[in-house]
Specification:
A: 158 residues, mainly alpha, 0% strand, B: 534 residues, FAD/NAD(P)-binding domain, eight-stranded mixed beta sheet, 18% strand
Chain lengths: 158, 534
């Protein structure tokens, strides 16, 4: 029997991920935004790793290496600078880590409500899309057809 | 190997073209069978039912089969291509995950050699296809507005999707620039239409429509085809088309849902697997009589792959716009579509104007572009982006080049051990100049619209899944794979009806034309039933 595909981080890896997520997206109480290390959000991030486990682990290792294993002990400015510098040149692993964190963060109820969005899936309620100003089209309607009619020889004669 | 009762017509693939040809041929009362390697999708399968709707675009509804990795998918080696392959395997095929944007090819697209001295003319023209475009618009249910001066006359049966705040913003900018724009035709219902309700704006339509407002062939053509007697078998993956002692197609060898090898005999075989799946199947059907692959005496099976390079230019305005609360496409512009001798490239492109995205997607896009920082400034910058995004896609015509091709990977195989396709593809200099011209125009438009933080994605997002040209049609058997009505030059009971038979690509989304062409070929077959194999 084949071993089940591993899709979960270990507890120590999840702790490291929390410190990184909290640096990438810090709590902002004035805006009502939780941090990426909020327990519920971090749990969702960890659950979301799934098929990206190898690349997320690669990202965690890269950040640990870049910080000399001292990421958690660095001050906030240094952590943010390190993350921004690493992300800009971190390739696929950086992109995946960012996507996993952002994907979970921006579906949290508190986050969506603080942004003025509804905390629900699109279906079944949907959304309202206004018609807009159709009079804007009047000037375009007045143009002569300009698609190239292949039935008309270059002389303009049929 | 298990045997099956012989059918009159065997169709491989149930997507855009397979569904259309099945429905059209059903009136002949022939026994028609379609084999589809994927499943039927249910409305509850689609991501917009759940809170993880954005994340699923990167997993089970990812457009790349390599990333999606369903057991109904086959892998594609696209390492040697800047543009990646997108598709979907299921009843409805790619129409399940397309954006439902519905432009037609222009008349000039069929005459590129005569008009512009490049590539080859098609053996059919726009006017031969016009009534099939109309029939297909009625079957799929098209929303749009007649009177566009940028395209030949057409009459969409439903009114267009609203401009919204985003469309109005683009329109004002385009009017100030004096450039053409028009509300896009789309196969998203805006009113009740043949059992579909008007769109309730679930957001980005690509990962399937839970409501069913977006036309996919599982809810348009297939219910009618099945009612008319066509049989559709899912989870049937075709390995090869076999031939008899006369060099005629005998049927298909396939693996059923249990992985059991089956043989399905047929009088006529129609391939509808699109521009990667069809050449893969033909090449996998090599035999002693056809050592280079079936229908490949020209050597062109797999060659001339066209993928539609598609830069996307984005920016952000102060006004809060529609965000992801509506279908992504809202306008098109044909201002730069036709060849202009003053430019440094031939042919042209459509500009497609997009709405915004959902919250998570916006964050991912912003971070990937380097515009959304990590740390204490993250929230401030994000608020300037969410629902403030404008984006313009540049749909570039991709001219055929024989070195752009599909072959069989010597190592990679699918779950049934069938060799997988390998893609070799580069973007030509003409196309690169066209892309840069389009990017510059899009930047002008966005600037005129008041956008800042402009960002041009030249390659990262440009895999639209338009798989064209790898079994081209033509009158010369040495320069084409199928004739002017879709029949193989080499195997006279083998037809191809999908995007692989395209001679050139135009600068538009292809589904409308793929289906019009499939209906045209079905009509030709019906007219020639007595002499079909002559």
């Amino acid at each position: 029997m084949a071993a089940a595909l591993e899709t979960r981080l270990s507890d120590p890896e999840t702790d490291d991920l929390g410190k990184i997520a909290g640096t990438m997206i810090p709590e902002d109480t004035a805006l009502g935004m939780p941090g990426g290390d909020d327990p519920a959000i971090l749990a969702d991030i960890a659950r979301s790793v799934g098929r990206d486990l190898a690349l997320v682990r690669e990202a965690l290792r890269a950040i640990a290496a870049k910080s000399g294993g001292a990421f958690a002990g660095m001050d906030r400015d240094a952590r943010e600078a390190l993350i921004n510098d690493w992300y800009a040149g971190g390739g696929v692993a950086a992109g995946v880590l960012g996507r996993v964190i952002l994907g979970a963060y921006y579906r949290d109820d508190r986050v969506l409500l603080a942004l003025g969005h509804e905390a629900r899936p699109p279906f079944p309620k949907g959304y309202v899309l206004e018609q807009g100003d159709w009079s804007l089209l009047d000037v375009v309607r007045s143009r002569q057809p300009f698609w190239r009619d292949d039935r008309v020889p270059p002389t303009g004669e049929r | 190997m298990a045997g099956n009762e012989k059918v009159d017509v065997l169709i491989v693939g149930s997507g855009a073209s397979g569904a259309a040809v099945a429905w059209s041929l059903a009136e002949t009362k022939m026994r028609i069978l379609c084999l589809e390697q994927g499943d039927w999708m249910k409305p509850t399968d689609f991501p917009s039912n759940g809170r993880d709707w954005e994340a699923r675009r990167y997993t089970d509804f990812e457009i790349s089969p390599n990333r999606r990795g369903r057991d109904t998918d086959y892998p594609v080696n696209d390492d040697n291509s800047l543009m990646k392959i997108a598709n979907f395997n299921g009843v409805g095929g790619g129409t399940l995950i397309y954006t439902a944007h519905w432009p037609r090819m222009h008349p000039s697209d069929f005459r590129v050699n005569s008009l512009d001295g490049v590539a080859d003319d098609w053996p059919v023209d726009y006017w031969a296809l016009e009534r099939f475009y109309q029939e297909n618009d009625r079957m799929m249910g098209v929303s749009g507005l007649a009177g566009d001066p940028g395209v030949p006359p057409r009459h969409p049966p439903m009114p267009p999707i609203g401009l919204g705040k985003t469309g109005s913003r683009y329109a004002q900018a385009m009017n100030r620039l004096g450039w053409h724009w028009w509300p896009s035709d789309t196969t998203i219902a805006t009113t009740d239409y043949e059992g579909r309700a008007g769109c309730i704006n679930l957001g980005h339509c690509t990962p399937g429509c839970a409501q069913g407002a977006k036309a996919s062939t599982d809810i348009t053509y297939w219910p009618l085809a099945l009612r008319a007697g066509v049989e559709l078998r899912t989870r049937c993956r075709v390995r090869e088309i076999t031939t008899d002692q006369h060099g005629m197609a005998a049927g298909a060898v396939y693996y059923d849902a249990d992985g059991v090898e089956q043989f399905q005999p047929a009088e006529v075989v129609i391939l509808a697997c699109n521009g990667v799946g069809t050449p893969r199947l033909l090449l996998n059907s090599a035999s002693a009589k056809f050592p280079e692959g079936l229908a490949n005496s020209s050597g062109l099976v797999g060659r001339n792959l066209m993928l539609h390079p598609w830069p996307i230019v984005s920016g952000y305005v102060e006004e809060a716009l529609d965000g992801g609360r509506g279908p992504i496409n809202c306008l098109w512009s044909k201002q730069f579509y036709e060849t202009d001798p003053s430019r440094d490239f031939v042919r042209g492109y459509t500009l497609q104007f997009g709405r915004g995205t959902g919250p998570a997607t916006q964050a991912v896009i912003g971070a990937a572009a380097g515009l959304l920082p990590w740390g204490r400034d993250h929230h401030r910058r994000y608020r300037q982006m969410l629902d403030h995004r404008l984006s313009i896609g540049v749909a570039c015509e991709d001219l055929p080049e024989e070195h752009n091709r599909v072959t069989l990977d010597p190592v990679l195989k699918d779950g049934n051990g069938i060799p997988a396709p390998k893609i070799d593809y580069t973007i030509s200099e003409n196309t690169r100049r066209m892309m840069e011209h389009g990017i510059a125009r899009a930047e002008e438009i966005l600037t005129e619209a008041g956008a800042t933080d402009l960002y041009a994605s030249r390659t990262a997002l440009n895999y639209p899944g338009h798989l064209l040209g790898t079994a081209r049609m033509g009158t010369d058997p040495e320069r084409s794979v199928v004739n002017e009505w879709g029949r193989s030059h080499d195997v006279k009971n083998l037809f191809i009806v999908d995007g692989s038979i395209w001679v050139t690509s135009g600068g538009v989304n292809p589904t409308s034309t793929i289906q019009a062409l499939a209906l045209y070929i079905a009509d030709q077959m019906k007219q020639r039933l007595a002499t079909l194999f002559d």
